[in-house]
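_Backbone structure tokens_
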Amino acid sequence: MIDKQDVIAFFDRCAPTWDENMIRNEEVIRKILDNGGVVAGASVLDVACGTGVLFPDYLSRNVRHVTAVDISPEMVKIAASKYPESPIQVICGDVEEIAFEEGFDVVMVYNAFPHFCSAKDLIHALAKATKPGGRLSVAHSMSRKMIDHHHCGQAKPVSNGLMSEKELAELFDPWYQVDIMISDEQMYQVSGIRREEQENK
């Protein structure tokens, strides 16, 4: 069982060198954002935003607003320093415990999903934060096999194995109509549209 305090400590230690160790596959990131409904005018919830690796992508797509949440104070410090005059609000906290005033058009969990204690609890919490008709995406810019290999070292105590796209789609199902399931050599993404009739559950 992952301990959230261990997650915080791990990512606080990683924060200073996170950006310099980041490798971006621009084509895959574009596909993830396209599939995720990141378009002009959208309101975005960036879950476990880290140092804000997707911030320039959101801004280049002219989103209306980004609320970026991370549980690591050191990650948040870096993220908050990057675009101070932009429509990006960075919050340090546990996204599962925050009651957002309004729902979001787009909820994005990018390169972070295995570090949550309970996938089911996370999806339930994010369903409350997604507007009816809005979209949730869980995505990685590498294969499931590579993600699990990447997390078998120092990150093992703060990582769960990445479930199959079909297993994750089943967790989405009570709240979302899943229409995208990708798990190949380049990327992993499950994405669905928030159902109207499940709005208050």
Summary: Residues 95 and 113 are 12 Å apart (CA to CA).
